[in-house]
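Protein record
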Amino acid sequence: MAMLFIGCDTSSPDAEEDPVPPAAHVEARGAMMQGVPPPNNPTGPSEGTVLSGPVFDLATAPNGSILAVETVSPGTDIPPEGTNTSVVKEISRQGVQEVTEIVTVTGSPINGIETIGRGNFFAASGGLDQAVGAGVWHVTRGNARKVGNVESFEKNVDPDANEGLKWKDPLCEINPSEGFTAGPQSNPYHLARRSGREVLVADAAGNTLLSARTNGTVDWVSILTPPTTGPPAASTAPTDWRVLFPLSQDTNCYVQPVPTAVDVGPSGDYYVGELTGVTPGDLEGNPSTGLSRVWRVEDGARNVICPSDDCEVALDGLTSVIDVEFGPNGDLYVVEYDENGWFASTALGTPAGGTINRCDVETGQCTAVADDLTLPGAIAFDKGGTLWLLENNIGTPTVRPVPSAAP
């Protein structure tokens, strides 16, 4: 998937100074990118603002309101024929208004958005088969440039297959019905700003946390490993990993971690949430739950394996984590897409309801603050500390405040 921005230029954007349909054996991106957008039907803030969709992320604007990116003209063809027009909209209790930044994407809508300053933000575009089009963009006053060529990085490095434990065999990615072939896969999803010049990227299909900088540098921060068959919650031993199916007598295809969410904590460490790939139980109609984790990666870490001295499990026992966000009280708010897992809710059509949890990352304890949600996709806090939620992101995407989630 290639990506073009209206009003692109090659000038250096302003930046702040640095502070010190899912494939059954691939990952969970397909299901979240299906569906026909409904007509726009805005309602009052108390009921929620309905957008055209699909919508995959929320961010907090510099003025404290909420930003959402909706795909208003989805393309269905592979590049260069198919294009998507995505519009950034600002949502507050006073209503919704369109922001001037308009982005045209070929092959995929915008998966993630992260603000830097007024009219200045990072955006992520997902990749098609073999990572085509995967990238990170820096938008400044309506102009944009690609600062992270994730497609090229994946093709040259492909970390989970070629670095560290080298645990993923590219042949495990083959799924003709979903259009996936053997080779590198990438789906940059949600983002977390580390500075005005660097953004962290949860690469769902790459099973990695990436770093992209405005100087064009892309590197892998950490590689996540498969969920285990039981305690401990994480292990570097392949004999502990959950097997989806044997590829050969000597090689297994494992259940994949699928990182979808990342945020920077109060101490500077990075917190990465997993959606978790399909399991044998899912395929047999017995949803696998409690396999998703939130990892803590040391501030400044590069090229580390999870688990290791620089990457440990902060929270476990979760199901289908789709977003994480630190609240004004210092707790981590964790969104679970569905209590039965994403596969049961999307592929099998048996949703059980999503949940927002407030978690203490020091003790590992979580408390549900909102449940029975309809396919929640993202959260963000406004300037008053109110939590805003995106629900039903591929049906009738709705953004609304969640009073019950107040600190």
User: Anything to note?
Assistant: Residues 3-402 form a domain with the Neuraminidase fold (CATH 2.120.10.30). The chain is about 5% helix and 40% strand. The CA atoms of residues 157 and 163 lie 8 Å apart. Confidence is low (pLDDT under 50) at residues 1-46, 76-81.
